[in-house]
Amino acid sequence: MDRPNYITPAGYAALRAEYDALFGTERPKIVDVVSWAAGNGDRSENGDYLYGRKRLREIDRRLGWLSKRMKAAKVVDPARAPDRSRVWFGATVTIADEDDNHRTLTLVGDDEAEAGAGKVGWNAPIARALRGAAIGDLRRVTLPAGEREYEVMAITYPAN
């Protein structure tokens, strides 16, 4: 990885919970099913065996990915942000476009981004444009729909 994988404590906990659930619960169940199905004889037409092996590969691939992301993670608590007057990691920002449409975004780690919930990944174009901005600053963002200009209306951080 060429850049740090910033993540909030809640985002890291979600990755950890998914890893623990896959490794501690789901994977052992699938291993039991596969070993039971393997004992039933012909494996070439055994749906439980074939599906179980496929699901086991999917789980192992996901566990590997989660493990890499957690090792590369740099947990940053936005509640401890030293400069709350500017937009940094974990900030909740209200922006307005040229048509005075307001949007509220929270800058989070790329692994916990969820556009529908207003959580934007730290390396998304709009997040990169907003980094370091103060209230009243204008920022130009190139989006797939074209170039837009946004004004920062409000900045908040979680309470300590």
Automatic annotation (TrEMBL):
One of its GO terms (molecular function) is translation elongation factor activity. Residues 5-75 form the Transcription elongation factor GreA/GreB N-terminal domain. The keyword Transcription regulation applies. Belongs to the GreA/GreB family. GreB subfamily. InterPro entries: GreA/GreB_C_sf (IPR036953), Tscrpt_elong_fac_GreA/B (IPR028624), Tscrpt_elong_fac_GreA/B_C (IPR001437), Tscrpt_elong_fac_GreA/B_fam (IPR023459), Tscrpt_elong_fac_GreA/B_N (IPR022691), Tscrpt_elong_fac_GreA/B_N_sf (IPR036805), Tscrpt_elong_fac_GreB (IPR006358). It comes from the Bacteria. Pfam families: GreA_GreB, GreA_GreB_N. Keywords: DNA-binding, Elongation factor, Protein biosynthesis, Transcription, Transcription regulation. One of its GO terms (biological process) is DNA-templated transcription elongation. Necessary for efficient RNA polymerase transcription elongation past template-encoded arresting sites. The arresting sites in DNA have the property of trapping a certain fraction of elongating RNA polymerases that pass through, resulting in locked ternary complexes. Cleavage of the nascent transcript by cleavage factors such as GreA or GreB allows the resumption of elongation from the new 3'terminus. GreB releases sequences of up to 9 nucleotides in length. The lineage of its organism: Bacteria, Pseudomonadati, Pseudomonadota, Alphaproteobacteria, Sphingomonadales. Residues 85-157 form the Transcription elongation factor GreA/GreB C-terminal domain. This is Transcription elongation factor GreB.
